[in-house]
Write a structure and sequence with these properties.
Number of strands: 9
Order of helices and strands: HHHEEHHHHHEEHHEEHHEEE
Distance between the termini: 37 Å
Largest sheet: 3 strands, antiparallel
Shape: globular
Structural class: alpha+beta
Length: 380
């Protein structure tokens, strides 16, 4: 009996150690939340970023304020210097390499306090230069932390595929959603899902000399109001006029309704519509006036050879172009060899039909994103 007790003693000690670590880690997390929840709530009211999301990101990325970047530079979100930063800096190895592939030190912003990094995080997500990447998030309700978590990953904020689930786990484990309140974010971000059709000039075809490329004209002109005859009457009755782009059924949102309400009124499953419209990421997402919503799965390409190319207009993103032409976003990127963290340059011509070679692919710009760089092991 005595020998059996001795054999079990190490196991008991291990479980006690694990339990003590979990309790200590929870206490550290609660202390962190207590210290920074005020600034997170304040920033939610100022910018529309949910307090729960901001806190969860900071907890995850700073390892509860214990990462070297957090305690040496007060940078809780891994914000890099970028162009134009004139403040204090902190250098550490991250993911940047030299021409030979050897890791080099990256430049990170250094702040006077952790609160300053919370403000900088807000400025990063709301910056006009990041609007094409993160602007759609501000169509979500500030209480929709699930939509925000998934949206950040979709927009390329973090490279970790489990990033959304980690944020959600933190939020729900510590009930951070109780800090969120509905905030009116209208006017803070231009709606990127509104799809006016551009008036585009024809551009010479790379493959057919002296033959102008024809651009998909869509069903409306950019400076004209979409067909409004009977629209006000339909809005009152809750009816939608069904039209087609690339032979795929779609409707225009009236504005103010959620995608869930639109699905219900059109007899559709809301989760199907979320799949068909890639940047509508939450069933509670509020739609804008004249936002294009597809009722069926978009096609992999534009079948009409005469409409097989699209010239990029100023401010157009890949998603906007995909919606204008009724083509799936992933197929549009694949055909033109454009990576997920990039947007095509103005004036470039995208193929909507055939796969382009690397040589004929359109030029694009990489969109700056913030990467998660700390060890998540303690939070798993």
């Amino acid at each position: 009996m005595f020998r059996k007790i001795l054999l079990n003693t190490p196991l008991i000690l291990i479980f006690c150690s694990i339990g003590s670590y979990a309790i200590a880690n929870r206490k550290l997390t609660e202390n962190y939340i207590s210290e920074y929840k005020k600034i997170a709530i304040s920033e939610m009211h100022r910018t529309g970023i949910p307090a729960s999301i901001k806190l969860a990101q900071a907890i995850l990325e700073s390892d509860l304020g214990r990462s070297p970047l957090a305690y040496k530079a007060n940078n809780h979100f891994g914000i890099k210097c970028g162009n134009g930063w004139t403040g204090e800096t902190y250098y550490k190895q991250d993911d940047e390499t030299d021409n030979t592939g050897i890791l080099i030190e990256s430049c990170f912003r250094s702040f006077n306090s952790g609160e300053e990094s919370y403000l900088a995080h807000s400025d990063f997500l709301t910056s006009p230069s990041k609007q094409s990447r993160y602007g759609f998030l501000f169509n979500l309700n500030t209480t929709d932390y699930v939509g925000w978590a998934n949206g950040l990953k979709f927009a390329g904020y973090a490279s970790d595929p489990s990033y959304p689930s980690k944020l959600i786990k933190i939020i729900e484990s510590y009930q951070l959603y109780k800090l969120d309140v509905s905030v009116n974010t209208s006017g803070r971000q231009q709606d990127l899902a509104e799809i006016p059709a551009p008036k585009e000039k024809f551009k010479q075809d790379k493959y057919k000399k002296d033959t102008p490329k024809k651009v998909n004209p869509n069903i409306w002109n950019s400076d004209e109001t979409p067909e409004t005859e009977g629209r006000e009457k339909n809005m009152i009755s809750g009816k939608y006029k069904v039209a087609k782009i690339n032979d795929v059924k779609m409707v225009l949102a009236y504005g103010g309704e959620s995608i869930k309400e639109l699905a219900l009124r059109n007899g559709k499953n809301v989760f199907d519509l979320l799949e068909y419209n890639e940047l509508v990421i939450s069933q509670d997402q509020v739609l804008k006036s004249n936002e294009v919503i597809f009722l069926s799965k978009k096609k992999k390409s534009v079948e009409d050879e005469a409409l097989a190319f699209h010239t990029v207009s100023k401010g157009e993103t890949l998603y906007v172009i995909a919606q204008k032409n009724g083509i799936r976003l992933e197929n549009l990127m694949s055909k033109n060899n454009i990576p997920p963290d990039a947007e095509p340059l103005q004036g470039e011509v995208l193929s909507l039909n055939k796969n382009l070679s690397k040589r004929d692919s359109p030029k694009y710009r990489l969109v700056e994103r913030t990467d998660v760089f700390v060890d998540f092991g303690s939070l798993q």
